[in-house]
Write a structure and sequence with these properties.
Length: 661
């Protein structure tokens, strides 16, 4: 999402002739956009709803409408009904908590084009002329996008089947009609990102089985609904997010949405409107592209190449739901696709902490595809809902065991779940994922994840942080050292840079230098300078290094971590690269403690208490230790105060001992 400032900066770096051509091209493009806006304002893009009068979806949905009674019985037996109804009542009352907003009543009509956290409204206009990011405005475009994804509609459907109360069907209808009225095609902020168009389309389709037979919804509503969906497909097909050197989660979303739309419309095609293909062509194209794209974006070890555990979860969810949906309709993906998808779940299982949660390494924006369970209550660092679904799709008991607490997701997405008699033992084996840059040391008492690897998009760093050789530590099921998370993106660029900066992570920093240079107002670029590499890895030992300070300070950072039954020992060393070692005190090692942890200590020995766990932290080779204030973000838009232990390095090396009782 380039800003005006970044665009001007790039122009100033160009030769004069190139810059003039760029400006002229931009002016011509703006003239075309202005004409397009004028044309659409005079004659909106639309399909006559009557064209869909004869259409009846013949596909198999994720949800089977013939099993309405059995779904209800299962939900009641599992004690899930009351939670679903509470969530649905909040949705009907238009009370939402999105992206850290806290509970907010959004009024009688939902503000589809408003950042209700700041009050900023994006006015109607041609989508390519809308400024979605202005770093000086502090508004967050993700807020209207998130609401307009309609991921809450699934909960309305579940409540309807639980109660047979038509108010839920009527609320669904009212919201859809209001959104269509307030968002003419190509004319609001909710058409500026094809990814969100695709996610919205998938969620609209996903709830059709709940409401299609509702006596309170007239048939002409469904004609208008289907016409709007068809236009969603047109838009996605004409605005694929596959330009540039690398594709990412946006393109996976585009393709997943097209696949869902192709399945939904099947052999039905509106005559004379084939400029963006037919539904069968959408499905064929999407599946072929996904077959290729999964090999581009997923590393051989099952990690996603955006170097973010949160985006790994999102991409996995899109690929899994699409795989299930296509297979159910007689369009299975190849064995190669399924093997890579299975390995993505194996990665999630392997990096899961003993408490069942997963560290959010790199960027995290609460992104989901279809929220089938716990809407408004799902934990951003809990990936087990995918393992529950994958357990059924791949028929794996280890996935089933890990996802046991999230079986409702398997009920809706996989069609049900198979009970397994006993919990399988948690693995205490250490695991390495060198392609993704994640290393996990484990024993029966402790879990330690180390980040050491390539930045996202093969070094462009779009969703990466300056976290090389940083670690996360969990002892006896309690978080001790944590990753700071992301907090926000464009709503506060200074906060974004703080949270992705070196100083917020549990690693070594030379002075105030960043491992990889941060360009203050370019929020999704972090050009590779670290070139981190693992040098040794066993079940209890990791050694690695990075070159982020080689050119800036003439040193290479080397880190060794040894894990035994009662202690994690960390040895940090600075090795001359092409200059001298930093002077004493110029380099420091930080440990970001979990929110709520308390610290007491003196000079080089500290006592940390976190969640009932007591640890002793000592430093060797330090010139002094200070306690700083920091932050940790567990979800987008939220942050909690956290303490940072920061020890200065005296003579080019420092040893940190973290021991527990």
């Amino acid at each position: 999402m380039p800003t005006v400032h970044s665009q001007i900066t790039r122009l100033m770096r160009m030769p004069l002739r190139t810059a003039v051509k760029k400006v002229a091209s931009k002016a011509l493009q703006e003239a075309r956009f202005a004409y397009r806006q004028y044309k659409i304002s005079r004659q909106p893009i639309a399909l006559t709803p009557d064209l869909f009068h004869s259409f009846e979806p013949a596909c198999r949905f994720l949800v089977d409408s013939t099993r309405r009674g059995s779904y209800r019985e299962t939900l009641i037996a599992e004690g899930l009904g009351q939670g679903i109804l509470r969530d649905a009542e909040r949705i009907c009352a238009h009370v939402f908590n999105l992206l850290g907003s806290g509970d907010i009543h959004l009024g009688e009509k939902l503000p589809w084009n408003k950042d209700f956290k700041t009050g900023y409204v994006w006015e109607r206009g041609y989508y390519k002329r809308i400024t979605i990011v202005d770093l000086d405005r502090m508004a967050d475009v993700k807020v209207p996008w998130e609401l307009s994804r309609f991921q809450h509609a699934f909960t309305l459907g579940k409540a309807y089947w639980l109660t047979d109360d038509e108010k839920y069907a009527q609320e669904f209808q009212a919201q859809i009609e209001d959104w269509i009225d307030k968002n003419p095609v190509e004319m609001t902020v909710n058409w500026t990102c094809a990814m969100d168009v695709a996610i919205r389309a998938t969620n609209w389709i996903g709830v059709v089985p709940f409401f299609r037979e509702s006596p309170s919804i007239p048939s002409d509503f469904w004609n208008r609904f289907d016409a709007a969906l068809y236009l969603h497909a047109w838009f996605i097909r004409g605005n694929l997010e596959n330009e540039g050197e690398h594709t990412g989660n946006h393109y996976i979303a585009n393709l997943s949405g097209l696949a869902a739309l192709g399945i939904y419309f099947g052999d039905f095609a509106v005559e004379g409107t084939h400029r963006q293909g037919t539904p069968r062509e959408w499905l064929k194209f999407a599946m072929a592209e996904l077959e290729d794209e999964i090999t581009v974006q997923v590393n051989p070890d099952g990690t996603h190449y955006e170097a973010s555990t949160s985006y790994h979860r999102l991409v996995t969810e899109m690929l899994l739901v699409t795989g299930v949906w296509c297979a159910r309709n007689g369009h299975p993906f190849s064995k190669r696709y399924q093997n890579l998808l299975e390995s993505m779940h194996e990665f999630m299982l392997s990096i899961m902490k003993p408490d069942g949660l997963t560290p959010l390494i790199g960027d995290a924006d609460d992104g989901r595809y279809v929220i089938a369970a716990r809407y408004g209550r799902w934990a951003r660092d809990d990936f087990r809902h995918l393992l529950a679904v994958a357990g059924e799709f791949f028929n794996r008991d280890d996935f089933r065991a890990a996802g046991r607490e999230s079986r409702e997701d398997a009920l809706w997405i996989a069609g049900g779940y198979r009970d397994i008699p006993d919990r399988l033992p948690n693995s205490t084996a250490s695991t390495a994922f060198p392609d993704g840059g994640y290393y996990v040391l484990r024993n029966p008492h402790a879990y330690c994840l180390i980040r050491c690897g390539e930045l996202s998009f093969h070094g462009q760093g779009a969703h990466s942080h300056n976290d090389q050789l940083s670690f996360v530590l969990n002892v006896n099921g309690r978080d001790i050292a944590v990753d700071p998370g992301s907090y926000v993106y464009s709503a506060d660029y200074q906060a974004r840079n703080l949270f992705r900066g070196t100083g917020m992570h549990s690693t070594l920093q030379v002075g105030d230098l960043e491992q990889n240079e941060i360009e203050e107002r370019i929020l999704f670029r972090l050009q590779e300078q670290t070139f981190a590499s693992c040098e040794a890895f066993t079940n209890s030992f990791f050694a690695g290094s990075h070159r982020g300070y080689a050119e800036k300070a003439g040193v290479v950072h080397k880190r060794e971590l040894s894990l035994d039954e009662a202690c994690l020992t960390i040895r940090d060393t600075l090795v001359p690269a092409n200059g001298r070692l930093p002077l004493p005190g110029e380099a420091s090692v930080s440990i970001l403690l979990a929110p709520g942890a308390t610290v007491a200590g003196r000079t080089d020995r500290w006592i940390v208490k976190a969640g009932g766990c007591r640890l002793n932290i000592s430093f060797e080779g330090t010139g002094g230790v200070e306690l700083r204030k920091g932050w940790a973000s567990a979800a987008y838009g939220t942050k909690a105060p956290a303490l940072i232990l920061r020890a200065s390095m005296r003579q080019g090396h420092i040893i940190t001992n973290i021991c527990w009782e």
